[in-house]
Amino acid sequence: MLDAKKLQMERKALFEDLFEGRIPKRVPIMTNLPIEFCIQYAGLPLAETQWTLENIEMVLDKACEMTSADCYPAAFTRYPAHLQILGSKGLVMGSNGFIQHPEIEGMAVSDYDDFIKNPYDCIMEKILPKLYSALDTDPVTRSMAFAKAFKAFYDYMEAYAKIDQKLIEKYGFHTLPRGSFSGATTPFDFIADFMRGFKEMSMDVRRCPEKVAEACEAVLPLQIKKGLPPAPSKFSHTFIALHMGPYLRTKDFEKLYWPTFYKMVQALAEAGQPCLIFCEHDWMRYLDHLYELPENTRLYFEFGDPKLVKETLGKKHIISGFYPLTYLKTATKEQCIDKAKELIDILAPGGRYYFTFDKTPISLDSINVENYAAVLKYVAENTNYHNAGEVIAYEKKTEVKLVSKDIPAFVSKYYTPWDAYKKKHPEMDAKLEPVMASKLQSYEEMMFRMMAMLL
């Protein structure tokens, strides 16, 4: 246990150096393994294990034992029970046991005006009943379904959290500060993913671009609230996966996608919360735009030219990615390690880099596990910096216009902050208010958190 604690402190120092602009002792490693991969790696039935959680600690333990990552490797997990209870159409477990996101349209083009008026109200009243069949019913049945789903969601979350903490301590993994992690979606992608679908959104860009722009601005406060955790920290991040940007014409990207994307990342940074952005597909067209994001934004690339990215962004932002996961399936162990050396030689000099692959291995057959483990072991043992502790010279800062003061607060009749609740209940005992406020608001936030996970 003492050795694990010592290892945990060493790993913590790697990331604190990385995020504070110092050269770390070596290249930090932050890679994830989805629960589906872990279950298959343990040789257990995929669908049944996700439902019952039987032997799930053993599943995650085997994954921890295999990896040399510095951070706890278990990735974001979708829970099956509450999705089934709600009759999910947008997140569905297939016969192979994978929860998938089929193309779906939760919002008609005629709903844009209502969405722009108040996105969260529109989601609750019009969109969720289209995406979840158990909510498209009478108020009593709907309430009962939601109550069961709420209980199921937090039962699974609690079960995983207990196992996660146990394994983190056992293996000495670095973790983000408590209450400092969150996830969000760019306003454009949020509307495209579940509201309109890829096909319809692509048509909207051409037939009603003004509505798309208004909708993105309208939903920005919701995404900022979703992305801002209880305890923002420069040592943590809000995760954002970028989806549709590479599929847009540059002029459409600059008009419809970029403005609210930039405002969201900037507003979170102003609140003390950096973003970790997964640049899905090829973002080479937009490197100059990405450069304008707040300093120390973490940019994780799937495809592109690592040398160009390092030269363009590496003096302002933290870079990762590029290692092709498919290589682990097709190449020899030596070739896989050589590929890691190649990328490290390009991306590691000068710091501001951590190692990860270009994507996570969704299923066991997507990689050769021995190659995966060998690459991470190589990085952990062979990437020491000769100038560890040296302060990195920042590129000259450009003047940044603060945006958060101009973004409206998140407001909805279906979200009640404490001050509004108090006004409705003047009969409350003032002496109990400090106790009641934190307790009741925590349940409000729990409901919001679950709602955010449904979309």
Folded structure, characterized:
This protein has 455 residues and is mostly helical. Helices cover 52% and strands 5% of the residues. It contains 18 helices and 7 strands. A 5-stranded parallel beta sheet has the order 3-4-5-6-7. It has a two-stranded antiparallel sheet with strand order 1-2. Helix 12 links the parallel strand 5 and strand 6 (298-301). Helix 9 runs antiparallel to helix 10 (209-227). The longest helix has 33 residues, at 139-171. The protein is globular and about 65 Å long.
- Radius of gyration from CA coordinates: 23 Å
Order of helices and strands: HHHHHEEHHHEHHEHEHEHEHHHHH
Net shape: globular
Q: Strand tally, please?
A: 7
Strand content: 5-15%
Supply the CATH class of the largest domain.
Alpha Beta
The CATH topology of the largest domain is what? TIM Barrel
End-to-end gap: 40 Å
- Category by helix and strand content: mainly alpha
Overall pLDDT score: 95
Instruction: Give me the number of helical elements.
Output: 18
Helix content: 40-55%
CATH architecture of the largest domain: Alpha-Beta Barrel
Whole-number count of domains = 2
* Side-by-side strand order of the widest sheet: 3-4-5-6-7
Q: How is the main sheet built?
A: 5 strands, parallel
List the uncertain runs: none
Q: Note the quaternary state here.
A: single chain
Topology:
Layout: H1 2-20, H2 35-41, H3 46-52, H4 56-66, H5 80-86, E1 92-93, E2 99-100, H6 112-117, H7 119-131, H8 139-171, E3 182-184, H9 187-207, H10 209-227, E4 238-242, H11 250-270, E5 275-279, H12 287-291, E6 298-301, H13 306-313, E7 318-321, H14 327-330, H15 333-347, H16 369-382, H17 418-424, H18 433-453
Parallel strand pairs: 3-4, 4-5, 5-6, 6-7
Antiparallel strand pairs: 1-2
Helix pairs in contact: 2-4, 4-8, 5-8, 9-10, 9-11, 10-11, 15-16
InterPro entries: UROD/MetE-like_sf
Protein name: Uroporphyrinogen decarboxylase (URO-D)
Organism: Anaerovirgula multivorans
